[in-house]
Amino acid sequence: MRVTRALPDLPLRASYVSGLFATTPIATLARALDQLCARAEQAEEPAREVLLSVVDALGKAESQGVAQRLREEAAGESLWALERLVRRAPSPRVEGEAGPGATDPTKERIPDYVKGRALTLGERKSLARRPDRDMIDKLLQDPHPDVIHRLLKNPRLTEDDVVRLAARRPGRPDVLAEIARAPSWVHRSRVRLALMLNPDTPPELAAPISGLLVRQELRLVAEATHVPPQVRALCLEHLERRPPGEKEEAEGEPVQ
Hints:
Blueprint: H1 2-6, H2 10-23, H3 26-41, H4 45-59, H5 64-77, H6 80-86, H7 121-127, H8 133-139, H9 145-151, H10 159-167, H11 173-180, H12 183-186, H13 189-197, H14 203-210, H15 215-222, H16 229-241
């Protein structure tokens, strides 16, 4: 916690935690994370701040093998605070892929970027980097996760844009996964809540985010009947462990 909080920006913090995932024996790592999660559940602000970077690190593709080993260790050693962080709900969906009934993004309707022809994926990815406000509004309608991945790094994109994208229904699980894995956006409480309230957010992505919610947000998700039952149940578990004095209002912006 000391080292992570001393690092000056979010990417460095996530990289440091990812390095610990790769070099720490799994039993030691699991117990340390369980203690961190338990302290975060008790609304200790330093622990909650570091948990943001843990969630970032878990979202990286290279950490998925570690995440599965942490699940096994948490179940075998009864590390229940950690288990709530890394829980994977039963689902036929592969992480990062669209669920049953979702369409291939290459076959969905592409926004009308220019008159006369459809743009290639490469051209749309290039447009996503441009600081053109009118084009950003069109790009937000693009169904391809690679386009959204680049758009989320566009400096002209606003929090309101991302909240609308995260709340859109029906949502594409692969697009929602891009938002959940973008530290600059998932660190914002409004974006997190929009993801949690979207029934198309994959439960395996919602699980770590749920540990970052405050009491009022947990209650909203737990009472939302359109949210998957396993996600609502997890939020109720977190709510039961929150101290009575925890602030009810949504969190402010994260420390940069």
